[in-house]
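### Sample
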Amino acid sequence: GATGLLRSSMDSIGRAHVYTYDKYGRLIRAVTPSGQLIELEFDLSVKGARVTVTRDGSSPITMLINGARVTTTIGNASSMTALLPDGTVVTRSPWEHHIATETTPYPLLDTPTLANSFPVPGRQLTEIGEELVNSFEWKYFVVKDRAGKIEEVGRKMRVNGQDLLTFKYDAASGTEAVFNLIGMPVLNVTYDPLGRPLRWSPSAPFIPMHLKYDRFGQLEQWSWGDQRGTYSYDKDGRFESVTYADDTKITYSYKDYQQAKPFKISVNGGGTHQLEHDAGGALSAVITPKGHKYLFQLQPSVMHNRFIFSPPLMPRHYYQLLYTDGGKLLASVLPQQAGRVVYSYDNVGRLQYQIYGDGSNEYGYQPETGLLRSIIVRELGYEQRVENKYHAGLIKEQRIRFGPAVTLHQANIRYLYDGHARPRRVQMEINANSIGNYETAYDVTFGTLESVQELKFTKISFNKTVVQDSRKTYIRVTAFDPYGRKVESSLTVRGRLVHRSRYWYDVRNRVSSHFVWRGPGSTETSTNYSYTPVGYLQGVDGIKSWQFRYDDNG
């Protein structure tokens, strides 16, 4: 119209949106392709500007904007985000989780006014129930020469008061080094003049990775030890092929120079899959090398959208997914109506019912926070109820009850947390009888899992992990190679080695050999694996040998 406001829009497959505005030019109504009505209401008062969004008269979402503070309310649950005068961003969830992200002036600028105009993250504090559970800080520094020219910039990462990593960037050489808490280098990254990474060099024994780009800035090759991938592009810049270290080549073909999506994919010049797309560019069909056709179709309908998948040879026996314009699943239907699952939502858009066959699941929520309060499962005389209780958003108790026709015992589970809101202890009662507590502990510096009950987890080095009990009657050792792949695992019981496995891999990261030793008195057995040029498992050679053959479709 004369106002220049968008009245309607339609995509290439006919899905249309219609928009309505008030006299001030504000959007007040939108109709989606499935007919869903989205309405916006505005109100201005001393409390601020209020915007309420509803879908078909339900699922209201209200946003109250007061200066730099925005309060979002869904049902009775409210969350808040505010920008403070010093640049700190504060968020508060309905269950009393507070996150404050503080900023600091840009360290490379000497002028205070200019440095404050480009703030960078400085510290993030997380509070649960008014208690600090986590702090994360960046400390920036600049190193200059005698002439005042910047030689090096860096930052230190501090978590809960402990320095963990230090990042240093040398502008002259274009390299960035990462050091651990004791000052040992763990990673070095080299960049080209355009800021693209050329080499990732972790500390020994890990393998460095090299990257190479073409003259247009597209990735041309990567190599990681004996693994590599080489990419090629056509004259229009479209991805054309990738070749791996075992000379496997995947090729993509296009119909003409105007098409941005491939219509054919082939592996080593052999089996070819054809792709078809609809007018909107979405995938509509896949044709296998033997000519079998898989169909995909999206059908807008009244108040929902329907996604249809039709397998080959059975075009009428299709699978269906029904969902709203907002992406919420309404139903999934098996071919010939053999089965379906229906989903229903409450007034604020949360999943409330899940109905399937002879059963159903019902979900209840706390009105003040929106957290899951209960789950009720019913099916052919079976009934189970799970009730959750929370403290500051953390689940503190879970009760499991069964219907009178079910002969299972009731259970109560209580959760205790450490000072960083991580599960520390689980207490359980079954049929009013207490059972042993389930204890967990974490590393003070890194927060990694350190023990579960009597089992302790220890990293002997970067590539070896030991799991053992307090008396060392059970010891499991797992070793990894420089690529992070498991190469050996052993099990020792009461000081006696009872099992050991070793693994070898090919240049495509597939297991090529597997050796197993099953304790004293046994011999080590080996199993070798081979693969087809396309990548399918071809042969297994061991105590028993197997050969696999595939048709053109794989």
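The first strand starts at residue 8 and ends at 10. This sample (Teneurin-m-like) is used throughout the tutorial notebook.
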